[in-house]
């Protein structure tokens, strides 16, 4: 419960414990078809008035020690209807195929300049991968090319709540 006694807006994953290691099949270091699979996410207790949700996933320890920290974007998903309670494992790239409420969502470009999820592949481990979920009071109109930067600019003044899940890679 939140400090005011209400239920806390929460982002969780059935396969990732907060601040625990990211399973290998969600990374670029998995094997064969068992790599770069987008992880399942679930959320609870949306703030009142939520009209849409957005997710931004970043390596907040990028690039490397001795370099300035500039978060590296792994995934952006916008216009998630509040009626959707989560994203299933392997969702990335399948929103049209899944249809229904999922077809209203839009995946943005990651920092590889490709739409959808792309897991980490790092020369050294121990980086923190931050999954941040935003509850918004309006739908986002970002045009054809969705990016983290456009998303963060557009949500300014529209955030009703945010929740974070951290994985270690």
From TrEMBL:
It holds the Pfam family PBP. Residues 1-34 are annotated as: Disordered. InterPro entries: PEBP, PEBP-like_sf, YbhB_YbcL/LppC-like. CDD domains: PEBP_bact_arch. Residues 21-32 have a biased composition (Basic and acidic residues). PANTHER family: PEBP (PHOSPHATIDYLETHANOLAMINE-BINDING PROTEIN) FAMILY PROTEIN, UNCHARACTERIZED PROTEIN YBCL-RELATED. This is Uncharacterized protein. It comes from Pisum sativum. The lineage of its organism: Eukaryota, Viridiplantae, Streptophyta, Embryophyta, Tracheophyta.
